[in-house]
Fold these 2 entries.
Entry 1:
Amino acid sequence: MIDYLWLIFRVLVFPGFTFLLFFTMFCDWIERKVEARMQNRMGPSFTGPRGLFQPLADFIKLLTKEEITPTESKKNFFRFAPILALSVLVFALCFLPIDGTSVIPNVSFGGDLIFVMALVSVANFMLFLAGWSSANPYSSIGAARVLTQFLGYDIPLLMLALAPAFLAGSLTLATIVSSQWVPFAVLAPWAFVLFIITMQAELEKDPFDVPHAESEVVAGHETEYSGGKLAFLKLARDVQIVFGASLITVLFLGGANGPVFFGFPEFWGTLWFVLKVLVIIVISEYITVLFARLRIDQVVKANWRIVLPLSVLSLILTISLAVWIYPLV
Amino acid sequence: MTNIATWARVKSPWVLHFNSGACNGCDIEIVALLTPKYDVERFGIKLEPSPRHADVLLTTGCVTQQCAERLKRIYEQMPQPKFVVAIGACACSGGVFAGNYNVVGGVDKVIPVNAYIPGCPPRPEAIIDGVVKLLNSLQPPKPAKKEEKKDVKQ
Ligand code: SF4
């Protein structure tokens, strides 16, 4: 009985749904603040202390608005795609060891790295469905771009994710984390940098944000959405960003590893994890603000001509180091 | 519950900008609002690309015959509750273009307007003031269509 209550607590409250929800909103606030400061603006300031509640206000406002379903849209897909995208992403996050163990205890199995990456593809496909089902030319173009981009960049992303797997000698996320007494970002910095760039493309952030380039396709796959569905779509996007940063943290920065000073190790684990995720989010936001948007053909070309060969090279380099050099040290 | 909804609505008005025939003077002032000097993101105001996402429609310029239909459609595409702010003398009444053969008149000839901000072009401060007055009028919730013509007379 206690076990079940503990499980429900972990899934619903901490480090599960509620914690992730508020953490996501906090990350959204950090992003908007960093972006504003980089552009010499103030960013949200008057909603709660220092504008901290701005994402919450946006979310609640969207929930209370009228929902419009276009007559021509595929109603079922249109209705369920945002919710499915959000739930798949939260489910994927449940596999990451946030406070030392994954959200559902003992759920990790050999190869859950591959499983988590597959879940992300499913979530991206839901975003595509959201755009495609709304029967709007701009949404369709945006959806097609989502598909083009994530199909292309999934390959190098998976290859780069294999680098830590080879260094740890395991495809299990928990083992990858526990074998990082030195973060893999130090052992394989080339893979780390490439992974951040590829993640940027996977999360549709600048310079790869063609799927929702305002000046070309209005709001991409989100164009026809309003009210609660838009709220969940936006939340899914923010959760996706948190997921990307968490995955980088788990694979390259040693997840919840860090010094434990006193008290519960879970507390310190979560603290280190959250701090590392925030660092990654700030870096990614810096890249977003610094670069201008590429064209869609440049995005595709950059993938097949530059990122893919580089990730193959990085994989070869990592494997040879993991097999011949690091065992000697 | 309504209190929370009103709070959220006041704190996060997302705007859509529509130019129904302005000389671009007013549009530049709106751009000034969004850029570092006046940065209205401080108040949670964000420029949205799609009318489906917007709460407040910022219209500039007189309404031309050609644009009247489009303006109406943009307005109808927005989800309730929605508000319209007419920015500039032209949007309020037709301004210097009133009575022209191809001009319908002010924005209120086509869609209901919640706040009028006169000026040619109005200063960014005036626009912020107008939007803040509009938001304050929300505090005790009012129906969306109620017009507020206080600011028309100069
Ligand atoms: S009010 Fe003045 S600045 Fe604005 S559109 Fe009319 S003429 Fe141009």
Note: Chain A touches chain B at residues 32, 36, 39-47, 51, 53-54, 56-61, 64-68, 214, 218-219, 222-227, 230 (CB under 8 Å).
Entry 2:
Amino acid sequence: MSENFIRFQKVTKDYGTVRVVEDLDLDIARGEFVSLLGPSGSGKTTLLMMLAGFESVSGGAIVLDGQKINDLPTHKRDMGVVFQNYALFPHMTVAKNVAFPLEMRGTAKAEVASRVQKALDMVQLGHLSDRLPGQLSGGQQQRVALARALVFEPRVVLMDEPLGALDKQLREQMQLDIRDLHHRLGLTIIFVTHDQDEALTMSDRIAVFNHGQIQQCASPREVYDHPSNRFVAEFIGETNLLEGTVSAVSGETLSLTLPGGTVFQSHGLAGFRPGDKGLLSLRPERIDIYATAPEGVNCLTGEVTDTVYQGDHLRIVIETAAGRIIARINRKAAEWANGAKVTLGFRAQDGWVIAP
Amino acid sequence: MKYAKAIYASLIVFFLIAPLLVILPLAFTSSAFLTYPIPSFSTRWFEELVVNSVWSRAILNSLIIATATTALATVLGTLAALGLRSQDLGMKSQIRTMFLLPMVVPAVVLGVGMQSLFVRLGINSSYWSVIIAHTVVAMPFVVISVSGALTGIDRRVERAALSLGAPPWKVFSLVTLPLAMPGVLSGAALAFATSLDEVVLTLFVAGPNQRTLARQMFSTLRENISPAIAAAAFIIIVGTVLIALALMLARRRRG
Ligand SMILES: Nc1ncnc2c1ncn2[C@@H]1O[C@H](COP(=O)(O)OP(=O)(O)O)[C@@H](O)[C@H]1O
Ligand SMILES: [Mg+2]
């Protein structure tokens, strides 16, 4: 495994006077699956298009396998691109579509035929090779696009929201299929999505985008459990945010004093000093609800104001002195009527303090 | 309401094709005059077209000029449409308007201008002058029709081809052009038809040796109103209909 197979170094993209990607640094290892996750308009597609060579780079460098590729024409980059709308050649059969990259490389006819067959079998479409794209369903077209992007064994596979147009069930199936192909073929994949579940399910690492900058790039677990700032904490999953003042730091545990005087023990970002403002991010599913306060956990009392039934769990809204808090509790736990006085609690390692 | 619509549509269609219904039967008259009633049916006026060298020469000229015009206008118009699609072209709409200008400029004005230009260049009254003049008025049809086809092409399809290793000229020949082909073909057919029935410019820039069928019909009308005109009209209309049918078939086969 070579580290830093793809490197973005201070990459910037301007459209006229608008800076769409700003001083962006990102290193991707060979064989890694990296998702670019962020709200619409945050510059994910633009970054991918620069890597593929469809858009020019306004500043900085993109390095592939030790070679700076800013000015390398697209057709020499050897990258498989899968677009959201599939972008199949509508006038060519499925087999012709998949054969296209091989023919461009002058592969011998017999080998083209066998590799096309293999690629189509891989996506379970071997029987449809004579159809035109217009005669296939969305999911089938997406599989053809995938086969076409993989058949020439590109150095990198780029996918721009490839599953966005599929319905939920098919999307989840394709997520698993792509993840499986990634493991089996050892592909390097860069995958753009605005769907956080998709990013969490599939990636080795997630780069969270906002305003053309990477807010955090880390494993799904790290991004979810230990967000580096407020944007990441709020963008990925649901969270309760409580503002307070750091009153003590010991090892990885901080003491955070809330305006009402309540003191919580919680883990958090490094670098806090007593007196700093801190923001506690508390995931709803990490909160427990008790009738009476237990020992050794952070506690806060409040009143249940709403309970929403969501099938596998209950969403409970609790008004506390520190503000409104949402908790998600397991169906096996006791249920609480509106107006019930409860105590909610969480352990220090289940909270995470970030800068406000 | 439904009947009213149908009647209205029929009236419009009748209004459009009535002139044809009047003139076409006269192609088969045995009389020496372009008038009703038709004494008896004959094909003598078609024979006249073939035998009389003025007419046969005009037919040949029309074919030569229309074919060359079609080729030239289709190539140039397609190139123009491709250029107009490019993203980093400034003043795109002004340039497009320039290309379409020959459609709205009065033919008489164009004709005067071209004549003096061609005379200065020393090519007036030649096949070239007629072909160039016809190309100028035929090209806008190609530009419009190819532009329409090009807007239907998803740029991501071309980008995909690039990323799959196709150099730009292969993307053009294997993806863009085949996908734009229906537009190119209808543009070509329109160019051919435009050249076939062009009269005004031809009057200005053609010499006696470049008399086209339409031009010949025009002067025959003034000199001696012969049913050969109707026969010539019949040939032009049948030719146009055949081209339209061929186009429709080609389209249908593409899917
Ligand atoms: N060709 C372009 N010209 C001008 N602005 C563009 C162009 N393409 C994208 N943008 C702008 O760049 C920003 C980032 O777009 P994009 O990379 O597509 O975001 P994302 O893929 O994250 O939704 C958006 O504000 C968008 O409007
Ligand atoms: Mg996008």
Note: Residues A 15, 20, 38, 40-46 surround adenosine-5'-diphosphate (ligand 1) (CB under 6 Å).
